[in-house]
Specification:
Layout: H1 2-11, E1 37-38, E2 40-42, E3 48-50, E4 56-57, E5 112-117, E6 123-128, H2 139-154, E7 160-166, H3 178-194, E8 199-207, E9 214-222, H4 229-243, H5 246-252, E10 257-263, H6 266-276, H7 288-293, E11 301-304, H8 325-328, E12 340-341, E13 346-347, H9 348-352, E14 357-360, E15 363-366, H10 395-417
Antiparallel strand pairs: 1-4, 2-3, 5-6, 5-12, 5-13, 6-15, 7-9, 7-10, 8-9, 8-11, 14-15
Helix pairs in contact: 3-4
């Protein structure tokens, strides 16, 4: 104990060799390098008093205070509570979502819900999400909804052709404009339609797996099958000539990279649909100016006629999307009847309090609203009074009747005395 106090006292020495516990030091500047000590204190209503035996310091007022912490000493990280700013959020689910201060591009995603109901009273809740590809909170929800939206049409294609069109690095700077991307997609759809394809779906991927650089490539799904080498070479040549002028291709010495494949089984077709509809722009820090430019860009377009019946069915674990297919058409997954949505959103935490059934894609089946309890049963020992009985009248009528009887009684008494 004595050695510990000696070490602590030796630390309370300035660079000039003066002890900080010396009463002659009336005031000391509060600095982070040394302990600030003041031998002067003031009590309420009194003048300044010097207390040399009880100097004031800027140390924490508890016995376990550390006088000097060496550099590099590991410290316990402060605990950050996400619920501190709960009341400052407009509508939150703070135990599952990040606070607004950590998301510079928007509010808390998925914190609100819409409630819908069909004519039979079957209720369902839908989480409101932003749908941005780089949003970690709703990426999986948006992906499942995207699959459910395209499945009713793409299930009409079997076998399915899969084309990937990649542009050279030298021309990608001109493809940062969403309007240019939309024009290229429209050209591909029109070209394939003129070549005899009846059903075409296109969707852009903006980055590769790790997002090192901007890597736009167009994914095309259409009703096709295996092509002979001559027809495949002719199709690739038509696409190259349509999308990239020959003068630019000769100048840069490169051309479009086009890959063609076809899927014959439902399992492979479903795997391709999942890959095409996935989010490729998974981090906004990869290219924030491009993310701002893509605001409102409609990615994923159809062309052709889509009136045929489904040619394949979902199998295995993909059957979970069967519950989402009616929702893509605005129908309840249980009854198949149209859903009427309430336009006033409510916090998602209120939906969780009802213990809903999660069917995927941010949709939740809610339990039916409980009917009001029946009226209390009337005791059987009560006797029903006849309609003419005065006791069946209201209290107001009884009071008026008693008043009228009193007046008639007074008048009768007056007449008898006269």
């Amino acid at each position: 104990m004595v050695n510990g106090l000696a070490v602590a006292a030796s630390r309370l020495v300035t660079q000039d060799g003066l002890s900080l516990l010396d009463p002659s030091l009336n005031r000391a500047e509060r600095t982070p390098e040394a302990v600030a000590v003041s031998g002067i204190c003031r009590e309420r209503g009194e003048s300044l008093k010097t207390l040399p035996d009880f100097p004031e310091t800027n140390l924490p007022q508890y016995s376990t205070a550390v006088l000097d912490r060496p550099t590099g000493t590991p410290q316990k990280p402060p605990q950050k509570d996400d619920l501190l700013d709960y009341l400052e959020q407009e509508a939150t689910s703070p135990w599952t979502l990040k606070p607004h201060t950590q998301k510079p591009y928007g509010k808390m995603c998925g914190s609100l819900c819409l409630i819908g109901q069909d004519e039979d009273g079957n209720r369902i809740a839908k989480r409101i999400v932003c749908g941005r590809e780089w949003c970690e909170d709703c990426r999986d929800i948006s992906h499942r909804r995207r699959i459910a939206r395209v499945l009713p049409r793409l299930m009409q294609i079997c076998p399915m052709s899969y084309i990937v069109i990649t542009f050279p690095l030298e021309v990608r700077s001109m493809m940062r404009d969403p309007q240019v991307l939309a024009i290229i997609g429209k050209k591909v759809r029109r070209l394939l339609r003129r070549l005899g394809y009846q059903k075409v779906y296109t969707r852009w991927h903006f980055f590769g797996q790790h997002g090192e650089k901007y890597h736009p490539h167009l994914n095309v799904l259409c009703d096709g099958e295996w092509l002979p080498p001559e027809q495949l070479a002719e199709l690739k040549d038509l696409i190259r000539r349509k999308l990239l002028p020959r003068s630019i291709a000769k100048t840069i010495g490169k051309d479009l990279d086009i890959r063609y494949a076809y899927r014959q089984t439902p399992k492979k077709i479903m795997h391709t649909i999942k890959y095409v509809t996935k989010a490729s722009f998974r981090d906004i820090d990869w290219d924030e100016p491009l993310a701002n430019a893509l605001y409102g860009f409609h990615n994923g377009c159809f062309a052709g006629t889509w009136n045929d019946p489904p040619k394949w069915k979902l199998t295995g674990t993909d059957k979970k999307f069967n519950a989402l297919l009616p929702l893509a058409e605005g129908k309840h997954p249980v009854s198949g009847k149209p859903i009427v949505w309430n336009r006033r959103p409510i916090p998602f935490v209120l939906v969780l309090m009802e213990e809903p059934v999660d069917i995927g894609g941010g949709y939740y089946l809610l339990p039916p609203i409980r009917e009001p309890p029946n009226l209390a049963v009337r005791p059987t020992n009560l006797t029903e009074l006849p309609d003419g009985d005065y006791r069946k009248q209201t209290n107001l009528v009884k009071r008026h009747g008693e008043r009228a009887d009193n007046i008639l009684s007074l008048l009768g008494d007056g007449e008898s005395y006269s």
